[in-house]
Amino acid sequence: MKAAPFEHHEPSTTDEAVSLLESLERPTILAGGQSLVPMLRFRLARPETVIDINGIDALDYLREEAGFLRIGALARHADVADADVIAESYGSFADTAPLVADPQIRNRGTVVGSITQADPKGDWGSVLLAHEGAVVAQGPDGERVIPADEFFLLPYDTTLEESELVTEVRVPTPDAREGSAYHKLKRKTGDYAMAGVATRLVFDEDGRIETAGIGMTAVDITNARARDAEDRLEGERPSSALFEEAGELAAEESNPESDEHGDASYKERMIDVLTQRALGDAAERAGVVKRTVSP
Amino acid sequence: MTDERELTLTVNGTERMIEVEPRRLLVHALRENLDLTGTHIGCDTGNCGACTVLVDGEPIKSCLAFAVQADGSEILTVEGMEELPAAAGELHPLQEGFHEEHGLQCGYCTPGMIIAGKALLDENPDPDEDEIREAISGNLCRCTGYQNIVRSIEYAADELESRAAADGGTPIDSTNSSSLGATGSEGKSIDCGLENCCGGPGVGSGDHDDGGSS
């Protein structure tokens, strides 16, 4: 099926894009388009105008700067998979990038677009939550930094204003004693997650967990944090018994729905297992402990 | 709203100008405006990969991009494979591999598989089986079970390597490559000293060592 007719605009600066967003009737932003184009084709989305931001070269970046890993709106999944800085310091990002869809889609689809799409089955939202990251939006009144915890509202719905363009997502650069990971269960390459868990652990000098972040994929109406599990971890020394408890708490906090891929109790059990695995990897990558048990 | 846009696409080395609506998908522009029907439409949802083409060297699904987004780009479709230097005026080793190793049954997915294979071998001339399976993981085939497709791409990798070796280790050009390779695994005539370079796993080891034509 073909998309309904639309007006097509190709701004070359962020300011131009924002003023188009403000002035045009029912616009939508096209970046990677790997979710948007099928939605247009099936007429699940029927905007009057499409603002194609691919010509805004200033949004094509992935770099560490001023205490953050900053991923611009035009950085593709493949760019994350290929970046040296990711391979060196950002375990969860390195885990996630090759698990998104398939190679062709990773060449086009963007991290920022995936997060802004706010599909609860999207992987990057969980990573952003686990890292206590933020979404940077440019609007008519300037720039706004939205903490990840305040970004997701409902499936495909965020706290973004209609005339705001997401220019970047960012997470804090890792501490010396920090590790992160992402584990995902999917039936085959290209699928969205049946369940996924992103973890981030920051340890203090005594080897206790100072900060724990856990983001869950596909088991609630949005990407969700497992706060009880995080609270249980903080202040403790890592151990397989502790991670088992955290896994159980995360499973209790999840709210999966039964579908053709599995029933809710199965997905809850998977959250338990994936949480333990991802915590194990995060701890190991933080260099504090060696993982001893693999559930 | 339905204003047409004029685009310039360099498709398989030839500059083409077309006029399309902004909502025209790249795959439709290729098939219908340019009459290049080798690029297939399989699923309409971005899952099957039959519409895979290279845009500026990168494999993408042409049913998930608008043609206007490719304005000014270089595109390679399956029709362009025979025109590449490695084809030496005949079939490209990837096409030959799909023939030799029975990499196709109904053939519908084949153009996408060949383009995905081309993208892989451009990046990684000596992929292992896992890397091949990963490279074609965005391409569905409902006939073959993939095993022969993997072998076809392995065949092409071996063939390209042996031609390069025969050419003194430099990339082959179209003038001197026809003496080797086009006859496939049975026709190798050199001992290049490299494991698996002369026809892959199916070739007996004695063949490799004798150094003469068989």
UniProtKB/TrEMBL annotation, chain A:
GO terms for molecular function: FAD binding; oxidoreductase activity. Residues 228-237, 258-269 have a biased composition (Basic and acidic residues). The keyword NAD does not apply. Residues 245-257 have a biased composition (Acidic residues). Keywords: FAD, Flavoprotein, Oxidoreductase. InterPro entries: CO_DH_flav_C (IPR005107), CO_DH_flav_C_dom_sf (IPR036683), Diverse_Substr_Oxidored (IPR051312), FAD-bd_PCMH (IPR016166), FAD-bd_PCMH-like_sf (IPR036318), FAD-bd_PCMH_sub1 (IPR016167), FAD-bd_PCMH_sub2 (IPR016169), Mopterin_DH_FAD-bd (IPR002346). Residues 1-176 form the FAD-binding PCMH-type domain. This is Xanthine dehydrogenase family protein subunit M. Pfam families: CO_deh_flav_C (PF03450), FAD_binding_5 (PF00941). The lineage of its organism: Archaea, Methanobacteriati, Methanobacteriota, Stenosarchaea group, Halobacteria. It comes from the Archaea. The keyword Hydrolase does not apply. SMART domains: CO_deh_flav_C. Residues 228-269 are annotated as: Disordered.
UniProtKB/TrEMBL annotation, chain B:
One of its GO terms (molecular function) is oxidoreductase activity. It comes from Natrarchaeobius halalkaliphilus. Keywords: 2Fe-2S, Iron, Iron-sulfur, Metal-binding, Oxidoreductase. This is (2Fe-2S)-binding protein. Residues 5-81 form the 2Fe-2S ferredoxin-type domain. It comes from the Archaea. InterPro entries: 2Fe-2S-bd, 2Fe-2S-bd_dom_sf, 2Fe-2S_ferredoxin-like_sf, 2Fe-2S_ferredoxin-type, 2Fe2S_fd_BS, Beta-grasp_dom_sf, Diverse_Oxidoreductases. Residues 172-182 have a biased composition (Polar residues). Residues 166-187 are annotated as: Disordered. The keyword Nucleus does not apply.
